[in-house]
Amino acid sequence: MSDQHHARAEQLIARERVEGISQAERDWLSTHLQACANCAAHAQETEQALRSLRTAAIPLPAGLASRTQFRVQLRLQEMREREPKRRALWAACAVSWVFGIASAPYVWRLFQWFGERTGVPKLVWQLGFGLWWTIPALFVLIVLLMERVRQGGEPDWMRQSK
Description:
The chain is mostly helical. The chain contains six helices and no strands.
């Protein structure tokens, strides 16, 4: 038999265990293994090696499962604690923006009246009106930045594992 047949047999033996082979290739391999003792021995050795790998015990550190469960519970608790705070923050911002939109014409007139009464230049009181619109967004930004700084830019569950 040629070396090509042996090389093909070895390739099919490996592929059969990993990704599978077609029925025609399986038939050819079976015929070849019946005729070639070396390839049959290689197939047997491969099967024994895979069987020993499947039955090999991999030692895990004691308490790994309980520590993992504990970490997952801590992370879940942390997420639950933060969720209502953020919901309340976003709800407060949404309410603020809704009231801001509803009251915008009145506030515009108020800024205009104040600017005319005090002699403030038009650009200044218009900028004041624009800043009035950005206050809720700035408040959210400040709160989120303060929270990020408090966390150190890294989630608590990552810092605990160090």
